[in-house]
Amino acid sequence: MTYSYHIFYFPFKWKLYNGKELLFSEQTDLAKINIRNDSFWIRQQEPVNYDELKSLYNEKNYYYKFVHNILYDEADGSSSAMIYHFERDEPRQSDKVRYVIKVKGRAKPYSLAVDAMNINLYATGVGFLSFYLRNDDSSQKEPDDILRINQYGRRIMPPFFDDIKNRYELSESIGIEGLWPVKEYKDDFSSYSVDDSWKPASFVNELIMELADNIVFEPVIDDRMFVASWYKNDKLADMFTENDEAYMNPADGFSSFWYKYLFIDGSFETCQNDRMKKELLDSHTYTRWQKYSSLYGVTRYSFMLLTNSSAPDHLLECFQTIYARMAELVLVQRASLLCFSDEVTRVSNLSNQEVGVISERISSLYKEYIRFINIVYFRDVTAQDQGIELYHKLHSFLNMDECIHDLDNEIEELHQYVSLKEDRSRDQKATRLNDIATFFLPVSVITGFWGMNSIEAVTGEQESFKWQCLLIFVGVIASLLVIYNKKKRL
């Protein structure tokens, strides 16, 4: 029996190795990724069995067709591909791959079956490493166990340096067992130094680097993985099914668990004000199916479902596929915006470069941004009421509209800056041309005059060369005086 299910998403930004000076579109060109010959990651574009085929059918019918380009790897190798989807081979071949979390104060590590491990790379410079984990161990089914699995299972770097010693937020170790080749995909975080900020656990780094040999990556959004999880517990479900305010009433015992479950708190609630707690729970909870013993919750780092043991299989499968995919899409959007913003900052720091170089970088960035708006960022992704409502909640708590507005302003200001530099460059070139024309004007007049009258006829043949030199000298002096007076007036 499966008691809970946990999906951990590690978002990161990637680019081609030594691609710092490339255009944005070249830095994130999926077609230029070199997949390692010895990699256990397999690009998977088609379902491998009947169950996956049914699941894919349900997903595609749920989402608008124009959303499919960013959700599914169906490209034929063309440069227009938006996503490459890779799956780790071992979980398909063995049921012994486990996600193991050793928590301080618990003798037995938490061990979850790994149903799948995926890496998605997107043409916006974003990637995801995903772990699909099944909890079928009756010794780790209690509410406190579920809270610890989510809290410690998502932590893949120390949030505070002192936590390396104290382990309040961090597990004692975390890793994957049962992968090939036989080696330890595990980190106990003891090797971290003060110079290792934003450095993910070693097993995360190894898994990604085993995919390709010409990409570099770094975390984006947060120092924790995003959590999508469902949990079946009859006792908890009975507490909220017929009580409309149980989930948000600070005086009700259920609200304490729901807050910790929703906001991924391990041992205590991180909100200690009743009014604020009530407001947070009310806004972050989705109650459409409350009387069917199903309570959903959405935050900027979690997407949760609490239900009872009689929940139909299709409900849980829908959460693991359709809604998990929705959460992933919104995370892709949010992470992509951060990548674009990072490129804006990088281009802004190129003020000492030639204006043509900066203009080309901005043009590439703007082109990819327009592509993102048209293919990745959507106001709605489905016609289903529940999907619309949950999608909007995810958008709201990740501040998507505000981020889009800010990025629009950043790109517009950058465009104006380059336009001013281009105008200034054109003005400088025009000024130089005017100076050249001004310089030769007196000489041209003199030359034109003497072109109609032979200088030898006026001065004599022996004196003509002296007069020519004198007139050229006078012409040059006159030109310089004209240019000087013109500059002085400016």
From TrEMBL:
Transmembrane feature ranges: 433-453, 465-484
Keyword Transmembrane helix included in the entry's annotation: yes
Keyword Transmembrane helix: yes
Keywords: Membrane, Transmembrane, Transmembrane helix
Subcellular location: Membrane
Record's bilayer topology term: Multi-pass membrane protein
Protein name in the entry: CorA-like Mg2+ transporter protein
SUPFAM superfamilies documented for this protein: Magnesium transport protein CorA, transmembrane region
